[in-house]
Amino acid sequence: MAYRSWQDKLNEACREFNIAAPVFQIVSDRRGGRTAWSSRVNVYGAVHSARFWYDGKNLNNAKEDAAEVALMWLNGGQSPSSAVSSPATSRGSWQ
């Protein structure tokens, strides 16, 4: 079985729920003489932040982290970063 990134899984889930594709944002924080990098992703009106900060050469890891958080929320899991109901938890009202 081929490896699928969290970003790919999140894109696929958005297509399945018939919602807009996720929009990623890279954020930085100056820490002493270095800069730490992280990511946020907007899905279905909710912004989910990566759990960790990364070195600049690992920006894709930051996006993967945010995508994993968003995918857990999208599938009905909990995310402390948003109060918006996920499509999985509000799906019953769509029918």
SSE topology sketch:
Elements: H1 6-16, E1 23-31, E2 34-43, E3 46-49, H2 59-74, H3 87-90
Antiparallel strand pairs: 1-2, 2-3
Helix pairs in contact: 1-2
Can you give a write-up of this model?
By secondary structure, this protein is an alpha+beta fold. It has a single domain (6-76), classed as 2-Layer Sandwich (Double Stranded RNA Binding Domain). It is built from three helices and three strands. The protein has helices at residues 6-16, 59-74, 87-90, and strands spanning 23-31, 34-43, 46-49. Strands 1-2-3 form a three-stranded antiparallel sheet, covered by helices on one side. Strand 2 (34-43) and strand 3 form a beta hairpin. Helix 1 runs parallel beside helix 2 (59-74). The radius of gyration is 14 Å and the shape is globular. The mean pLDDT is 87.
Short description:
The protein contains three helices and three strands; from the N terminus they run αβββαα. It is an alpha+beta fold and about 100 residues long. The protein has one domain: Double Stranded RNA Binding Domain (2-Layer Sandwich), CATH 3.30.160.
Protein traits:
33% helix, alpha+beta, 3-stranded antiparallel β-sheet, Double Stranded RNA Binding Domain, globular, 95 residues, DRBM domain-containing protein
Count of domain modules: 1
Count all strands and give the number.
Answer: 3
Let me know the average pLDDT: 87
Q: Helix- and strand-based class?
A: alpha+beta
Helix count from the secondary structure assignment: 3
Low-confidence stretches: none
> What is the percentage of strand-forming residues?
15-25%
Major sheet: 3 strands, antiparallel
| Radius of gyration from the alpha-carbon trace, in angstroms | 14 Å
CATH architecture: 2-Layer Sandwich
Under CATH at level 1, the class stands as Alpha Beta
Rounded to the nearest angstrom, the distance between the terminal CA atoms is: 34 Å
If strands are numbered along the chain, what order do they take across the biggest sheet?
1-2-3
Element-level helix/strand string: HEEEHH
Large-scale geometry: globular
Residues in helix, %: 25-40%
Q: What name does CATH use for the topology?
A: Double Stranded RNA Binding Domain
